[in-house]
Design brief:
Elements (H helix, E strand, L loop, with lengths): L1 H4 L2 E4 L5 E4 L4 E3 L24 E2 L18 H6 L1 E7 L5 H12 L4 E3 L8 E8 L6 H5 L3 E9 L6 H11 L2 E5 L12 E14 L4 E8 L5 H12 L3 E11 L2 E2 L7 H14 L3 H6 L1 E2 L8 E5 L4 H5 L4 E2 L3 E4 L8 E5 L5 E7 L3 H6 L4 E8 L14 H12 L14 H6 L26 E3 L7 E3 L11 H20 L1
Parallel strand pairs: 7-12, 15-18
Antiparallel strand pairs: 1-2, 2-3, 4-17, 5-7, 5-14, 6-7, 8-11, 8-12, 9-10, 10-11, 12-13, 15-17, 16-20, 18-19, 19-20, 21-22
Amino acid sequence: MGSDSKAKKRKASDGGAIVETSVGAMIQPASHTPKLDTSQWPLLLKNYHELHIRTAHYTPLPTGSSPLARTLPQHLSYGVINLDKPANPSSHEVVSWIKRILRVEKTGHSGTLDPKVTGCLIVCLDRATRLVKAQQSAGKEYIGVLRLHDALEDTKVLQRAMETTLRGALFQRPPLISAVKRQLRIRTIYDSKLLEFDAERRLGVFWVQCEAGTYVRTLCVHAGLLVGTGGHMQELRRVKSGVLGEADNMVTMHDVLDAQHVYDQTRDETYLRRVVMPLEVLLTNYKRLVVKDSCVNAICYGAKFMIPGLLRFADGIEMGTEVVLMTTKGEAIAVAIAQMTTAVMATCDHGVVAKIKRVIMERDVYPRRWGLGPMAQRKKNLIKEGKLDKHGKPNDQTPSDFLTSYKDFSKSNPPALSGSSEAIVETPAEGMEVDDDGDDKKRPADDGSKGSNEDAPKKKKDKKDKKKKKDKKNKE
């Protein structure tokens, strides 16, 4: 009795009170919701509590798994390696060696490094190769050694050239020995510093943060011209590519070879799992949209991401922002282009949230959950009865109440439907149509005169003639 009266109270981390009784520790009821600290959660789930909540009502499905709990074949299939590229072999050679060592189907890398250049080369395996394009266009950081051709009176001249003049958008032409066409191009230098200069040996160490496709060799030549002595690049190392740098689990070719050997001999996955990281590490800097489990497979099949499937969303999303769609378990589903801002997502009850740019997840990892609603069931019945055509489009027998109640989201601006069953077709201005992909490419709109069957053989013949001419030109 006395022990109960002298129950000790201590404050819980979430602000509630934990009471120590003779029975044990008990949590007192609190009027506020306790906070969940997610700052230590892995990959895309980090700071999950900071995301805005659209709804918390959804049915979790037992399929799928956390990126860190995948089976080894899946881990390799959705894996990336932050490789310390050795000097002398080309990037292509290194990537093909890794493909052979790990026995995977596909490999790709984050941007070519010259044979003599060392450092960060992100190698993507199998499904992760879908992120290669995004990684190639990501910013890069380098540390290099510059050799001047003559003695320099004042080091500040070189420092001023590197840190002030050679910044921003610069004209660059690829070096004489180059695999690409030597065309003048514009590349941006975001930041650069002269770290050290040895006046006796005329060697300078510099750091540069630049746009993808920048020629650091050309930058060194320009620095030499600015100080009036001439110069060239002596040595170069990439220290960061996109979000991954030297400190982010960088491994060597020996690590990759040893990890696979250890697994083959002892079936110990630990070393291999440390060398190969989940592809989600490349997407941690993207704004996140959390998707209901029932919507995942539809997105994998190419559906637009609509408001009813949204669970949580990040702050600061603007129209046209690249976002990552993720599951509640932290798996990346796809990279998409946002069609709504954060404010609209919080208030709107219908519409397209994001258009899919690149699907990452394989199909049918999650079960199909579309076509199970009341409207979808009614549509199937109408198709069976012949009141809709086989593609689900209205015909003469379609009931008028279906035409008014059914909204077709496949059309960007659906026309206001009256009782008539005829579909209104919108034609773009000037006889041109724009690709739905968001590209700026335009092509002539198809009309009856151009798309007739009579012209088809003629077009085919013209195409063959063009191909023959092209082949002949290549042979010459």
